[in-house]
Amino acid sequence: MAAAIEGYASVSSAAPGETVDFHVRADQAHSRFTMQIYRRASVDQLVQTVDGDAYVAGAQDDAALAVNGCDWPAAQACRTLIPPQWGSGYYVAKLTSGDASTWIPFIVRSAAPGTTSRILLKFSDATAQAYTGWGGRSLYTEPHVPNISFDRPYDDVPGLYEKYQLPFLGWAETNGIDLEYCSSLDLHTDPRILAPYRLLISLGHDEYWSLEMRDQVEAFIAGGGNVAFFSANTCYWQVRLDLNGRRIMTCYKETEAAPDGSKRPPDPQRADPRRVTVRWYEAPVLRPESRLTGVSYKYGAGWWYPNPIDPLKRFRAYTVTDASHWVYAGTGLSNGNVFGNGTSEDDTILGYETDAAHVNGDAETPRTFTTLADADLTDWGPGGQAGRATMGLYQRNGIAFTGGTVNWVGGLSGGGDSTPVDWITQRVLRELARDSPPAVAVANAGFEDWTGGVPTGWIRDGAGTVAATPADPAALANQMRFSTPGNQSLKVDASNGETWISCAGLALDGSKSYGAGAWVKSSTPGATVRLQTTDTWTDFANAAHSGSGEWEYVFAAGSPNRGAAAVPARVKVQVAAGGQALYDDVSVIEIVDHSLP
Q: Which CATH number is 1-116+132-150+237-288 given?
């Protein structure tokens, strides 16, 4: 049965100077309405009030509209040109007509990105859309539908759209932490949206990601940007987005069984296997989300409703495993201490779904991943998913921190400085939002210039060959080469024996740590990136590609351990005998000591 009044916004986000239309349907008795727009955070701020007329329709097939888009006419009097004085934030349009009301959420982006904050908070609106069941259709209803439209109301507003986001916004505002905002869809459509920022935040339940979203965030980290995943079940299902027209999100979930045990229909998309809508770690995608986040729901835990709540099992805490790490500064915690426990979902950090690391030497978890806290939730089954929760981080030029839980906000206090979770959150935001030292200069890092069959500034050694090859169009199209876009990559062919190419002349401080990284593509193990001294010929950082056949960012860190001495060094890319690999966008950075003031 249709609601008395309901609607949706024409866009998921808009910047000042851009227009938002509101598409509203109502029955005859509620066709005249008042629209009040609020900016929401710790308090609601009213910014606009107008009256409008809704579309009054006859009987409609809402199930078909949910899949194909409602296509209701815009309420003309409610068309909103976002004014310059509206700051970036989370906004809702409240529609009221007599005794009926509804809310329409949307995001306002910054007019000048990166000027009021170096932190960008991404709303998980793609996941909210996947779960909303308006019209009796979602990615979870039966019969299963693989397509749903953003051009429809949310059936549970504010619901999942703001459940985890709004408490964080209020906490940040109370603590004087400025943020700028975007939609999940902005990561899909704007390949440069992250460029002005130092830190991206993912919040709450952030399950559904497109290839463009993931590629851009991985490239952001590879280029030196930082991410804080205060979320879980993150990047679990791949979706495709068609935003030309009725804004359709597609996810066949072909590897998930239906309630009757039958298989979901296969995704007909096979021309590009990278885009098949399965779980990210499954064939044919085979790209575990833990390569991005460090953790996965595959190893995490889930307490599924409507199971009866057992407080002794459900409301649990993290246990500190590395109290010396800089994220714990000021908390007073020691190894073995617990934090984030409560007596309800509102004040417990471990939410109904968690992610966990799988640190066993395989290609699923970055080699630089550090576990900072752990929770054993293996008693959450049956009736749920038994597993663990992991808080940790890794570095890959930039740093990716993960909270490993959908309910990170449950550990935050109203005052903002009274719990260990408050301290950890403030520490992560402060450290990951600040500037890093300039990168160490590496000549011709993108391999665009060549002299005598060798990249200018580099020296070839070994039994094989090197050559310039056209840059992978897919890598360019999906923003994988974020730092040094160009037209060529380096091909190293070690079919006839081990081959390497190096750039020397690096003068490094022996008391500091450094990292070396590059985009690498290889179908066999043995393609590496190294830092090496040139007086003792010692590798002090060495990382290898997994041999997946896909582009991966390979990164290693280490120190020459020479006190304060100046150490001559080189960066080297090396392929083991019998292998071939492509390289691009080599970088060398100084590792920031975040434990220092």
A: 2.60.40.1930
User: Do the Cβ atoms of 282 and 367 come closer than 8 Å?
Assistant: no
Evaluate the CA torsion angle 429, 433, 435, 440 in order and state its sign: positive
Q: Give the mean model confidence (pLDDT) for residues 504-516.
A: 96
pLDDT by residue (tens digit) across 568-577? 999 999 999 9
pTM of whole model > 0.70? yes
Cα dist. 295→120, 225, 287, 337 in Å? 22, 19, 13, 22
Residue 490 CA neighbour count, 13 Å, CB half: 34
On whether the CB atoms of residues 109 and 190 are closer than 8 A, the answer is no
With contact defined as beta carbons under 8 Å apart, do 170 and 176 qualify? no
Instruction: Give the C-alpha separation, 99 to 88, whole Å.
Output: 31
In angstroms, rounded to a whole number, what is the distance separating the alpha carbons of residues 530 and 525?
15
Angle of CA points 348, 351, 352, to nearest 5°: 135
Q: What is the DSSP letter of 219?
A: H
**Other CB atoms within 10 Å distance of the CB of residue 416:** 19
Bridge partners for 202 per DSSP: 122, 229
Cα–Cα distance for residue pair 150/67, rounded to 1 Å: 9
Architecture of the CATH domain 450-590:
Sandwich (2.60)
Q: What are phi and psi of 584, to 5 degrees?
A: -160, 155
d(CA 70, CA 54): 14
Residue located via tokens 């066949």: 252
Q: How far apart (Å, rounded) are the C-alpha atoms in residues 472 and 84?
A: 40
CA distance 338 to 346: 18
CA atoms within 13 A of residue 393's CA, in its CB half-sphere: 23
Q: Which of 165, 207, 215 is nearest to 188 (CA)?
A: 215
Alpha-carbon span 133 to 139, nearest angstrom? 8
Q: Where are the domains of the chain?
A: 1-116+132-150+237-288, 450-590
Beta carbons of 541 and 530 less than 8 angstroms apart: yes
Backbone angles phi, psi at 521, to 5 degrees: -130, 125
The DSSP letter of residue 409 is G
| Rounded Cα–Cα distance for residues 240 and 249 (Å) | 6
- 3-class SS letters over 270-300: CCCHHHCCCECCCCCCCCCCHHHHCCECCCC
Reported as a pLDDT band with limits 50, 70 and 90, residue 398 is: very high
Give the tens place of pLDDT for each residue, 20-43.
Answer: 999 999 999 999 999 999 999 999
* H helix or E strand, kind and range, residue 474: helix 473-477
Rounded Cα distance between 126 and 239, Å, is 9
As a whole number of angstroms, the distance between CA 555 and CA 398 comes to 10
Query: Could you count the other beta carbons within 10 Å of the beta carbon of residue 265?
Result: 12
